[in-house]
Design goal:
Length: about 210
């Protein structure tokens, strides 16, 4: 099978949601996103919106890895979502719209975890422009074939073209892959019992940080 990187289309959202649910089954993800119809519908709507934003603006990138083989339908095997931050300081007083999490999710944990990741990103990066890997997932049926690496490299190459540092909030499953690509752990913290997240920073290739 040959694999290539292509932009995610809004019509890919159901397959992207399917990959999310098959790949993210760690103790944190199980509490954040319920494995029911409402959780699936939430994720489909979420990815459709992200793909539309990626298509229409410069801030977000959403890419998929597509496998093709003679006589077979192409299959989406994984995806990644990236976001540019221009370094504008956040207005702490600004009210963010509250996300309505699907029923069955631990809404308090969702709010506190995503707010924590935001704080971690700002602490690690400060106010310099940067690129951020928001999501990376490969269908377990395609794991350890270099596809996660291909999706990661796509974004890191983009960061290097633009001369940007990269921030990643890494799950335990992703950390080894990121370390292999010069991402340095700057903080590790427990989110729920038995699950720790790691804030990681990668300098622009060829440059040391600072
Ligand atoms: C993390 C993930 C994207 C890796 O995808 P993948 O396609 O299986 O990874 P690759 O085949 O590209 O791995 C490349 C290298 O990364 C490292 N790596 C990948 N998965 C690893 C794991 N579970 N443990 C340790 N190292 C790992 C290895 O060095 C690997 O090279 P090797 O297979 O030659 O040893 C995938 O496991 C996944 O979707 N996990 C669940 C979702 C998740 O946690 N995503 C990360 C969010 S931050």
């Amino acid at each position: 099978m040959d694999f290539s990187i292509e932009p995610v289309l809004p019509s890919d959202a159901p397959r992207i949601a399917e990959i999310y649910f098959s790949a993210f089954n760690n103790p944190l993800s199980m509490r954040l996103m319920p494995r029911n119809e409402e959780g699936y519908a939430f994720q489909v709507a979420n990815y459709k919106k992200s793909a539309e934003e990626a298509q229409s603006g410069p801030e977000k990138d959403m890419v998929k890895v597509v496998g093709t083989a003679p006589g077979q339908d192409p299959v989406i095997a994984g995806f990644a979502q990236w976001k540019f931050y221009d370094g504008t300081p956040i207005d702490e007083g600004e009210k963010k719209e509250k996300t309505q999490w699907p029923s069955g999710s631990d809404a308090e944990l969702c709010d506190s975890f995503f707010a924590r990741v935001e704080r971690e990103r700002r602490t690690a990066i400060g106010e310099q422009p940067h690129y951020c890997l928001q999501l990376l997932a490969v269908d377990p049926a395609f794991s350890r074939r270099g596809l996660g690496e291909k999706l990661l490299k796509w974004g890191l190459d983009r960061a290097d073209e633009k001369g940007l540092v990269t921030f990643i909030s890494a799950s335990p499953a992703g950390r080894g892959l990121y370390e292999k690509h010069d991402c340095k752990a700057v903080h590790n913290y427990e989110v729920v019992p038995g699950y720790s997240e790691t804030s990681m920073v990668r300098p622009v290739a060829g440059l040391s940080r600072g």
